[in-house]
């Protein structure tokens, strides 16, 4: 009988494992909802940082479309549902761009069913292109001209097909004017 009382808390045929301080700390952290990342892994969150989110009032302000109309568009399938529900619901850049495109297509007198069909097949990038907007900043390419080990001239490279001869001549003039001064440094 004494054996039954001692082993009442654990399954039979399973020896009790001694717990280390690290095991106890890990269990306590789990109970509190905090866990450390496994050894050898990055402590960065696996979830990407969310993009900016808009509240319904901000969408109203940006587009001039009433909240009631935005909700109607969601119910008709013109827009994806909001993230969350109720007063804490948020919308992303895709919602804003689609609302602007809906406004443009309505001004061209397209029916809502046609707009829904058109938007249903479009990605956010295609909506951007249809609106003629660029959401992400352009990537600049720079050319570096080293005039001296301690002096550099940085020049933004124009996009392909937009070469400006006057600009290139100005760069050459600047380099030519700076060269005699730099030669005196050496």
What structural class do you assign from the helix and strand content?
A: mainly alpha
Sketch the topology as an H/E string, one letter per element. HHHHHHHEEH
CATH fold annotation of the domain at 56-131: Multidrug-efflux Transporter Regulator, Chain: A, Domain 2
Estimated share of beta-strand residues = 5-15%
Average predicted local confidence, pLDDT = 78
Report on the biggest sheet: 2 strands, antiparallel
Instruction: Give start-end ranges of low-pLDDT stretches.
Output: 1-5, 40-49
Fraction of residues in helices?
A: 40-55%
Strands, total number: 2
Q: In angstroms, what is the radius of gyration?
A: 31 Å
Give the strand order of the largest sheet, numbering strands 1, 2, ... along the chain: 1-2
Between the first and last Cα atoms, what is the distance in angstroms? 97 Å
The CATH level-2 architecture of the domain at 56-131 is identified as Orthogonal Bundle
Look at the structure and give the CATH class of the domain at 56-131.
Answer: Mainly Alpha
Looking at the structure, what is the overall shape?
flat
Counting DSSP H or I runs of 4 or more residues, the number of helices is 8
